């Protein structure tokens, strides 16, 4: 069961994620979850840069484990920003903020179910 007594697969369904399906011979950590590939047309690098390669300042610092391979890719992306001033923290904050805004209604439903009566 997930937060608020919801089934973890139901939360994934609401959030538009694939159910956990570990690759054969591997563990079940979040790094091993297979997700469907994106079928849309690739975004042009210039559009991607304008959309994502700027940061949001961090207010409080918290630790977050990022697998080495993913960290390397994210570091390369942030290094490719036009002004060279994008931090990995800012980039990740921006991505998560955009995701939460894109799925705002779904997130609100999950939060309301998990934390009834919150304002």
UniProtKB/TrEMBL annotation:
Residues 19-45 are annotated as: Disordered. Pfam families: DUF3408. InterPro entries: DUF3408. This is DUF3408 domain-containing protein.
């Amino acid at each position: 069961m997930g937060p608020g007594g919801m089934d973890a697969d139901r939360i994934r369904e609401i959030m538009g994620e694939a159910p956990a399906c570990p690759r054969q011979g591997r563990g079940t950590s979040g790094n091993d979850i297979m997700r469907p590939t994106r079928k849309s047309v690739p975004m042009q690098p210039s559009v991607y840069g304008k959309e994502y390669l700027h940061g949001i300042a961090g207010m409080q610092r918290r630790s977050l484990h990022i697998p080495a391979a993913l960290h390397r890719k994210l570091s390369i992306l942030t290094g490719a920003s036009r002004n060279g001033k994008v931090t990995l923290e800012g980039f990740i904050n921006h991505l998560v903020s955009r995701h939460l805004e894109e799925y705002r209604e779904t997130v609100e439903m999950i939060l309301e179910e998990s934390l009834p009566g919150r304002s």
